[in-house]
Write a sequence for this structure.
């Protein structure tokens, strides 16, 4: 056993001690080594599989694309349309079918080629042709012409007042025709040759490096570039910002517990917290053609049965705003909530009217997306709140299903009530109402074909449909009124129960200036300033 | 038939069976994926697109074809080395795997080295004083590391070494402020080849914590196997005979006992590395390590059929090849093995 004895004690111990010492020195060097790099490190949850504006459909990718490219227009933080690559507001013909957009003449792409109407037309046509989300165009664009080098003419198939909002969509970011000549009909995922304040210097799905574009037409970035990295878990993101491994944490996917902890750290002055406009709504869809919920009185009772404030407090520590509308507040003109407030007394009356409460308890099967933690917490909290306040009339049974399966089965009418979320494809009330309520074929308040089927409600209303269609032909106050009317009819139909709204939040180390957002809820990366430089 | 010829015949038979096994696995994965609920179109578009948009995307992705046609297209592609295109971003699957695989292999190799070093050291400690306190501690270590939940251990290590002590990065594979070295995709190797010490340092720092976590979790298996095998072998007659012939104890252990104790460990090591390449999911998720297991998980979430199929085929091929290599190696080393 000599060998083992030797291994065991002196030599072995020496080896262990030496290895530990080396490790400690190694780690200590790494800890004391300052990062001289001047780029800002931003972390988010999830990878970016594609930087192609025609392919990207995740919020994270759209955020990055907004730094690498510009859109024709942008909604500023006050909700006003601001020309970017366009020189002025679009000129819309009297019949509402022709739009003329004058373009800036001083813009170049990252490859050095000039931005003009042909480049814009190329990008729009490519998106219509191959874009993953090209359904947002909704057959509204009939043709795209370039009457002058810096004038774009869009001919519409029908009047559409929401087209202005559509033109702010990041998916319509122009790309250089010469760099994408070989990618007219396919995606170019690994780069983006746009006109934005930054150009891409390296890409992999989990990390991207951006450098300021020296020939940018607008205000130059306030920083010397960005490192954009992804982490897989909320815990990693939280740890990374807390330990200073990253400068900025930008993620809506972070768990509510971590969100609160970060919020508290910023209250103590250890981090800076920024809030963008709230754009992501959370709601419950009721299947109105089911035996249980085809009774409108029951649906109305359910609208009165949810204590949004309590749920927001319990689930998100008040970091998600209770919502009684389908339109985010920033896009509302009259700031009026159409859905009723929590009222258990009215709820009980309505349940009684529907034949429940007297030893007959309504059982509502509620489905939540099992891979969305906040959905599960919402479901559990509502279940407990109902037990507390309405146990003699209503009980909720829960069922968790993975989101992809939920989406697949929504139109099959599987779920009586299901918790879902929605972010408009562009910042306009129509981008919130139409995708949730629109219906192409209505039979007695039941939708046979249309968005209401895909949304799982199967509810439709001729008057609401007319109102939605009219709103597309109207502008200003008249349009606002029409959209309000549509929303009021939706609330009256009680097929959807809005619960809360989530805003984009960002946390930064204290050496940065307060973050700024645009009206789309995107962080303006070029405005970030490192005060230590 | 002499031994060498038998060995060659055995190897060829195993190699010939490998494609059949892969075909079976591919077929199984193909159909199981289609049976599973969910749809790639819904995963890509969410609940937002209308029927026409869904159908257009379905046609574009080739999902409108009859299942049997999809299957034969897939098998035809597979035979020609074409794993198809990702439904998610239309990139060739083989290219995506080519980017993910080096990260997983790098992690698996270093984890295995750490596991072997720790496992052997601890195993030797146990055999030095059988049935003593040290041996008890060694046994507990073996069982404990084997029973430890990987994600829990990974989070503990992350919190302790990254958050509390701040010694190592929380996650990722490379410092965000640096551009990864070009080359094979094995960052440590590429940094060495390029003579880039900054990249090497950054790569090692990022690799250390996930590899050490994985290595420690695996080391229990090696320590237990080494301890048990050595204990058995040291009590066999041929070892007693060697001792009685006056051979030094060091030589008895090194030249007589250890080689025989190593045979089962070689098998374990081979299978461990094969399973680690595709099976270190929880470690990859916790440390945001961009490896193939994480890629597989994301592909499953996205219902990216070609991607899942491609990754499974690649991992299965690696498992088959590595186990074949180990079998042949053991058959070559151990004359007692018949085939």
């Amino acid at each position: 056993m000599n060998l083992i004895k030797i291994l065991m004690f002196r030599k072995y111990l020496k080896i262990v001690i030496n290895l530990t010492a080396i490790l400690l020195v190694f780690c200590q060097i790494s800890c004391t080594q300052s990062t001289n790099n001047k780029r800002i490190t931003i972390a988010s949850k999830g990878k970016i599989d594609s930087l192609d504006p025609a392919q990207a459909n995740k919020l994270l990718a759209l955020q990055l694309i907004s730094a690498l490219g510009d859109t024709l227009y942008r909604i500023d933080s006050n909700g006003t349309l601001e020309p970017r690559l366009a020189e002025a507001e679009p000129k819309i013909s009297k019949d509402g079918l022709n739009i003329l957009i004058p373009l800036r003449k001083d813009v170049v792409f990252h490859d050095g080629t000039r931005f003009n109407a042909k480049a814009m037309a190329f990008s729009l046509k490519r998106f219509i042709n191959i874009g993953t989300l090209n359904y947002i165009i909704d057959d509204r664009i009939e043709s795209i012409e370039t009457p002058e080098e810096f004038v774009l003419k869009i001919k519409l198939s029908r009047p559409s007042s929401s087209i202005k909002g559509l033109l702010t969509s990041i998916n319509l970011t122009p790309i250089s025709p010469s760099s994408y000549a070989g990618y007219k009909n396919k995606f170019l995922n690994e780069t983006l040759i746009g006109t934005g304040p930054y150009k891409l210097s390296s890409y992999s799905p989990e990390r991207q490096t951006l450098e300021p574009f020296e020939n940018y037409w607008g205000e130059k970035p306030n920083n010397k570039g960005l490192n954009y990295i992804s982490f897989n878990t909320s815990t990693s993101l939280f740890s990374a910002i807390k330990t200073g491994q990253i400068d900025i944490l930008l993620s809506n996917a972070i768990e509510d517990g971590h969100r609160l902890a970060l919020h508290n750290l910023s209250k103590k002055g250890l981090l800076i917290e920024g809030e963008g406009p709230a754009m992501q709504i959370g709601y419950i869809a009721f299947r109105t053609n089911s035996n249980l919920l085809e009774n409108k009185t029951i649906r109305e009772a359910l609208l009165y049965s949810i204590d949004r404030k309590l749920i927001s407090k319990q689930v998100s520590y008040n970091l998600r705003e209770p919502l009684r509308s389908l339109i985010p507040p920033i896009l509302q003109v009259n700031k009026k909530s159409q859905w009723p407030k929590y009222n258990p007394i009215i709820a009980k009356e309505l349940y009684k009217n529907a034949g429940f409460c007297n030893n007959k308890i309504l059982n509502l099967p509620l489905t939540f997306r099992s891979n969305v933690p906040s959905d599960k917490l919402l479901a559990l909290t509502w279940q407990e709140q109902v037990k507390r306040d309405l146990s003699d009339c209503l009980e909720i049974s829960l069922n968790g299903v993975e989101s992809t399966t939920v989406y697949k089965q929504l139109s099959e009418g599987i779920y009586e009530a299901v918790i879902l979320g929605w972010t408009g494809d562009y910042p306009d009330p129509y981008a919130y109402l139409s995708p949730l309520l629109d219906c192409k074929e209505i039979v007695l308040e039941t939708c046979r074909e249309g968005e209401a089927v895909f949304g799982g409600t199967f509810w439709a209303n001729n008057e609401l449909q007319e109102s939605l269609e009219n709103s597309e032909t109207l502008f200003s106050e008249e349009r606002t009124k029409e959209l309000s009317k549509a929303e009021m009819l939706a609330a009256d139909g009680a097929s959807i129960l809005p619960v809360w709204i989530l805003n984009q939040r960002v946390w930064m180390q204290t050496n940065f200036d307060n973050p700024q957002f645009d009206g789309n809820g995107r962080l303006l990366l070029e405005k970030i300033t490192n005060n230590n430089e | 038939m002499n031994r060498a010829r038998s060995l060659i015949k055995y190897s060829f038979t195993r190699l010939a069976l490998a494609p059949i096994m892969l075909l079976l696995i591919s077929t199984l994965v193909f159909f199981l994926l289609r049976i599973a609920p969910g749809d790639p179109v819904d995963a890509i578009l969410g609940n937002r697109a209308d029927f026409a948009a869904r159908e257009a995307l379905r046609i574009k992705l080739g999902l409108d074809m009859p299942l049997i046609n999809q299957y034969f297209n897939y098998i035809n592609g597979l035979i020609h080395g074409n794993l198809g295109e990702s439904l998610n971003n239309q990139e060739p699957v083989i290219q995506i795997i080519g980017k993910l695989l080096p990260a997983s292999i790098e992690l698996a190799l270093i984890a295995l080295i750490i596991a072997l070093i720790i496992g052997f050291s601890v195993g030797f400690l146990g055999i030095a004083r059988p049935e003593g306190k040290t041996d008890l501690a060694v046994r507990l270590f073996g069982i404990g590391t084997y029973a430890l939940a990987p994600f829990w251990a990974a989070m503990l290590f992350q919190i302790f070494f990254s958050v509390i002590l701040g010694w190592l990065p929380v996650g990722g594979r490379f410092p965000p402020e640096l551009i990864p070295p070009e080359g094979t995709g094995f960052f440590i190797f590429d940094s060495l080849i390029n003579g880039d010490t900054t990249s090497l340092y950054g790569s090692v720092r990022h690799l250390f914590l996930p590899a050490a976590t994985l290595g420690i979790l695996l080391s229990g298996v090696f320590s237990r196997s080494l301890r048990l095998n050595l204990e058995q072998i040291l009590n066999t007659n041929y070892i007693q005979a060697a001792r009685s012939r006056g051979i030094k104890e060091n030589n008895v252990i090194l030249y007589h006992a250890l080689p025989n104790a190593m045979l089962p460990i070689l098998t374990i090591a081979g299978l461990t590395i094969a399973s680690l390449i595709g099976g270190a999911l929880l470690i990859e998720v916790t440390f945001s390590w961009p490896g193939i297991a994480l890629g597989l998980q994301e592909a499953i979430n996205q219902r990216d059929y070609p991607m899942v199929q491609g990754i499974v085929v690649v991992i299965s091929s690696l498992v088959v090849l590595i186990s074949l290599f180990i079998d042949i190696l053991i058959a070559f080393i151990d004359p007692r093995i018949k085939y």
Remarks:
- Residues 29-36 of chain A have pLDDT under 50 and may be disordered.
